[in-house]
Amino acid sequence: MNEPIRIEVERYTKSRGFLDSIGNNSIRTRNNYATGLVHLQRFLCFQFNGEHNLDSIIDLIIGKQINVYELLDNFVSFECSKKDQDRNKPQSLKTHLIGIKSYFAYYDIDIIPSKFKRKVKIPKTIVEKQEPIDATDIRKILLSCNNRRLKAYLLILASGGLRAVEGCAIRVKDINFEVKPTTIHIRVEYAKTRVGRDIYISDEATGYLKQWLDWKYRERSSSPNDLIFNIFSVESKPETLYVKLEAEFIKVLKIAGLDERREGMQRRKITLHSLRRFVKTVLSDQVGGDYSEWFLGHIGSVYYTNKESERRETYLTKCMKYLTFLDYVALEARGKSIEAKMSEKDREMRAMKEKYDHDLQTMRKETNARFSQIMSMIRHNPKLTQVKPDALLKNFS
Fold first, then answer.
1. How far, in Å, CA of 71 to CA of 124, rounded?
2. Which of 119, 153, 172 is where one domain is finished?
3. CB 288: neighbour CB atoms within 10 A?
4. Burial zone of 323 (CB within 10 Å; 0-12 exposed, 13-18 middle, 19+ buried)
5. Which of 54, 140, 168, 274 could form a cystine bridge with 133, CB 3.0-4.6 A?
6. Domain count, the chain
7. pLDDT at position 216, please?
8. 355 and 297 within one domain
9. What range defines the domain where residue 55 resides?
10. Cα angle: 93, vertex 97, 102; to 5 degrees
């Protein structure tokens, strides 16, 4: 093909109609499905020597000239035979198949799940434990970053738990600096669950964000719809902006010495999503699972219905100090608070030990006194040796 295959995919009547329909609901899903169709088009060119494409294959399947299950199984074999595959290939393949099956279903080609499972064999996904990241790692990354924009972006992710693209989609009017802590609205069209929400960020992140905005608008006024991290016109879309920021983040990881890749994969152990996992861990440890699920925009308990003011206060008093990395005044105060709590615990432990020792000593004295009295009675009256000890003890109760 003389032109990029993605452009060709967009030109086919059937594939374009399908993608445009998907795009009415979600641009992100449209792009993901388009990638799946690109892989299918490459396979069709190989399998049929360029005689069939995404348009013509639909008519052949409907006319039962091609078995859809055999086609998909051959597609899987073709994808698995590529030399550039890595350990993440099975998961990528499953994602492509979701788009392809949706494309077929759009043109009334039904794929029965049980039959698909029997006839199309997909390699098992290798699940690798995620690399944990802690406050020390985040601090090291931030100290290695000299980019105003990236540092503000990373602090928002590390204190607000946003998804990377959600952070890129923040507009000027989505930020409320008038409340404490600062609130950021996550737009419904960029939320993975398609539910808009408001999240909070730390005072530290607020400070760096204000510095960035002051520098960005030092020579011009802002517009409410401006993407706050957008500088150039080529970055006008959150998805494009994400690619730029991720590339800058990788450079910082190299400087910090934290750019190690996962074994057998191109993906690095630490990614932008690692910051979201860190926030989830902190919130779960400090407040609980229900609050963390709500904060990250997951589908949580329907019974968790705290008022907004209470959720804000919870973040401010119980969480924010653990989501602060460069504010050394706050960190020192947090350290003193922890030290004070540990000193208080030590005092409580010492008091408990002293009480235990005192009670034990008192009990020993009472036991020895009773034993001495019993032995004295036996010496004066040997017949008492035939009496049960319980009966003797009654005399001292």
1. 20
2. 119
3. 13
4. buried
5. 274
6. 3
7. 94
8. no
9. 5-119
10. 160
User: Do 320 and 176 fall into the same domain?
Assistant: yes
The first and second tokens of residue 361, run together, are 């000593």
SS3 content of the chain, % helix, strand, coil (to 5): 65, 5, 30
Tokens of 367: 């036991």
What local confidence, expressed as pLDDT, does residue 189 receive?
84
Length in residues, the chain: 397
Cα torsion angle, 138, 143, 147, 151, sign: positive
Gap between the Cα atoms of 111 and 68, Å rounded: 8
User: How many whole angstroms separate alpha carbon 33 and alpha carbon 105?
Assistant: 13
User: How many Cα atoms occupy the beta-carbon half-sphere of 228 within 13 Å?
Assistant: 27
* Contact in structure between 41 and 88 (CB atoms under 8 Å): no
What pLDDT is stored for residue 1 in this prediction?
Answer: 40
Q: Are strands 183-186 and 175-176 parallel, antiparallel or unpaired?
A: antiparallel
- Residue 184's nearest CA partner among 204, 200, 169 is 200
User: What single-letter amino acid sits at 22?
Assistant: I
Q: Name the DSSP letter for residue 232.
A: S
CATH for 322: 1.10.443.10
> pLDDT for 18-45, tens place per residue?
999 988 887 878 888 999 999 999 999 8
Do 249 and 146 sit in the same domain of this protein? yes
User: CA-CA distance, 105 to 119, in Å (whole number)?
Assistant: 18
Q: Are residues 145 and 285 in the same domain?
A: yes
Contact between 289 and 301 under an 8 Å Cβ cutoff? The reply is no
- CA 312/CA 367 separation, integer angstroms: 58
Residues 6+ apart with CB under 8 A from 21: 106
